[in-house]
Design goal:
The chain has 144 residues and is mainly beta. Helix content is 3%, strand content 37%. Strands 1-4-5-10-6-7-8-9 form an eight-stranded antiparallel β-sheet, with no helix packed on it. Strands 2-3 form a two-stranded antiparallel ribbon. A hairpin with a 2-residue loop joins β7 and β8.
Amino acid sequence: MSILVHAALAPRPLALPFPETLIRAGLSGFPSPAQDYEGRTLDLNERLVKRPSSTFFMAVTGDSMETFGMQDGDILVVDRSLEPRPGQILAALVDGEVIVKRYELIGNRPYLCSGNPRYAPIPLGNCDCQVWGVVRSMIHEYPV
């Protein structure tokens, strides 16, 4: 991760059309045609940034979290107000390097783990670690 950008404290609302229609990953029949015209909107700031004063964005570099769906270039929405719990993805400063890893307990000992088996779990008892926040969501852009 190389980019740290704080969320705006009072972003300008930008509500975009958000149809009621659910998108399916497989074929399972016809949705109701009336579902398309509900008039709902979606504001990504409101949806992704729950606590603006404690939220920042970071860009992912590397391949250590691909199993968890994180690709090089993805943008993370990180909330520093959340208390880290096992199973959550964290942004942390470990031995002077900013990393993103999943917080896990292995044998009741805390570790930061990659989603890629090429990278060994990092035992937190043996390093200097400062948790920056919990990853609340991720933005992935497809090449178009």
